[in-house]
Amino acid sequence: MTALFAQALNVQNPLFDTDSYKYSHATQYPQGTDYVSSYIEPRKGWDGIDDVMFFGLQVELAKLAKIRVTQAMIDEAAPVLAAHGLSLYVEGWQRIVDAHAGRLPVLIEALPEGTLAPVGVPQMRIQNTDPACWWLPSFLETRLLRAVWYPSTVATLSHYVVGKIRAAMIETDGSDEGAEFKLHDFGARGASSAQTAALGGLAHLVSSMGTDTAMALVYARNFYGADMAGFSIPATEHSTMTAMGEDGELAQMRDLLAAHPSGLLACVSDSYDLMRAVRDYWGDALKEAVLARDGVLVVRPDSGDPLQIVPDVIEALMAKFGYTTTAQGYRLLNEKVRVIQGDGVNRFSIVEIMKVMMQRGLAIGNIAFGMGGGLLQKVDRDCFGYSMKASALQRGGVWHDVYKDPVTAEGAKTSKRGRQGVMRSDNGAMVARRLENIPEGADALCPVFRDGRLLNVQTLQEVRQRAWPDKFGA
Q1: What is the pLDDT, as a whole number, of residue 473?
Q2: Can you say whether the dihedral through the CA atoms of 211, 215, 218, 222 is positive or negative?
Q3: Most exposed among 158, 353, 394, 464, judged by the fewest C-beta atoms under 10 Å?
Q4: Cα–Cα distance, 112 to 466 (Å, whole number)
Q5: What are the binding residues?
Q6: Which pLDDT does position 409 carry in this prediction?
Q7: CA–CA dist 155, 200 (Å, integer)
Q8: Which positions are tagged coiled coil (predicted)?
C-alpha cells in the first residue's frame, strides 16, 4: 500500500492485526498450557431474527493461507510494539518461522457456509496444533471475529428480507418466480470501505442475484468460484436526468428509450415532479415508445414517504398502462412497466411497504427494492451479539473448562464451557454440545483450515444450495 511518509510500516504484516492488549496475553495463560480451544457464536437474536446464516469465513481463510511469517516481520513489529507500550512474544513467533516455515499452526473447523442455525449455536471452532503456540488462537480472535460477524450478519439480513418478499409474492402473485431479483444491493457508496462493500455485497448474493456492487462480483469469483454471481441493468441518476434542466427532462427520457430499445431499463423520475413524469411523460407522451420496447421500463421514485408514494405511483401507472388481476385477486401492472423503490428502504420498511400494497390490492410482483446503507452499513457486531470465547485449555494432557459467568450480566454474557461442537437434535434442530458428548462423525463443525492450508473449499453455488435448497437445487 502506498505510504506518504518515510519509515512506513508493512500493512500486510499479520503481527499488527490484533487488538493491542493481546500482545500481553502469552504470559497470562497458566503455566503448562499446551492447547486452547475457542469458538465463535452469535449470542442473541436481532429484533425478531433468531436464526443466523453462517457465511464469509472462506475469504479470511484464503488470506490466512497466504501468510508466511518472516524474520523481517518480527524485526519490524517488535520495536514498534515496544514503543507502543507492549512486548511482542518473539519466542512464539520465532517458533512459527523456524518450525512451520511461517505458516499458522491452527486447526479451524466451521459450519458449512450457507447454514442457517439458531442463535447460541457455535459457527466456528479454533485450536492450536503446536503446543508451543497455545497463545495463537486468542491472538487471531480480532481478525477471525471480524471476518465472521459482518458477512454472516449481512447474509442473514438479506436472507430474511428475501424470504419476506418471497412469502408476499406467493400470497399476491401465486408464485415467487423472480424473487431473487427483487432485493437489489445499492450499498457500495455507503459502505465504510471497498473491502466492506465487496464482502457485504458478496454476502447479499447468497440470497439475491441483483447487485450494483461490482466489487462483490470480484470476491464471488476469486473466493467462491462464481463466474457471474449477480446482475444489474442500465439505469439513470439525477445527474443525467437533470443535465438539460426541467424543460429538457422529457427529451432525456425520450433519448433514453431510444438508446435502450430492449431489455430492462430503470429511470429515476422524481427530479422535478414525480407524478407529472409518471402520468404525462411515461404514461402519455412516451407511452407508445414504452409499449413498443422489447423489455421493461422500471420507474424509480426517489423521494417522499414510500408508504404513500409506492402504491400511488403503481396505481398511476396502472391507470395509464393497464393491469391484470392475479388468481389471488391482486392487481399486476402491464408487463412492460414495473417500479423500484430505493429511498428509505430497510428490512422494516420493506415489510411495511408490502403490507400497504397488499391492503390496496397491489401484487408484490409490481415492485423491486434497492437497499443501500440498511443492507451493508447499518449493522454491527452487537446485532447478533457475536463473540469469540476460549472455552477449554489443555494442561498436562487434561482438558479444563474455561468460561465466564458475570453476576452483573445476569446470564446474558455467560460463555460456554468445554470444547464446543454442534449436532442436530432428535427434532432436527442444530444445538450446541460439548465435543465429547457428540457421537463420532456427527459434529457439524467441519475442518476448513489446518496449518496454513485450506480444506474443503466451497463454491457460491454450494452455499446457495444450502441457503435456498428449493431454489438452487440439492
Answers
A1: 58
A2: negative
A3: 394
A4: 8
A5: 189, 212, 238, 300-302, 342-343, 373, 381
A6: 85
A7: 8
A8: none
Nearest in space to 366 (alpha carbons), one of 411, 308, 325, 401: 325
Angle formed by the axes of helices 71-84 and 90-100, nearest 10°: 170
| Residue set of the binding site for diphosphate | 189, 238, 300
Domains located in the chain, CATH noted? 14-152+385-472 (3.20.140.10), 177-376 (3.20.20.70)
Q: What is the DSSP string of 353-388?
A: HHHHHHHTTB-GGGEEEEE-HHHHTS--TTTTTEEE
Q: State the angle between helix axes of 306-321 and 347-359 in degrees (0 to 180), rounded to the nearest 10.
A: 40
Helix ranges, 231-377 (H): 238-241, 249-259, 274-276, 287-292, 306-321, 347-359, 373-376
C-alpha span between 357 and 331 (Å, rounded): 10
Q: How far is CA 260 from CA 295, 297, 378, in A?
A: 9, 10, 35
Binding residues for beta-nicotinamide D-ribonucleotide: 212, 300-302, 342-343, 373, 381
Residue 470 clears pLDDT 90, i.e. is over it: no
According to the model, what pLDDT value does residue 268 have? 97
Q: For the CA atoms of 95, 101, 104, 105, what is the dihedral angle to 10 degrees?
A: -70
Q: Which residue has the cell 457464536?
A: 41
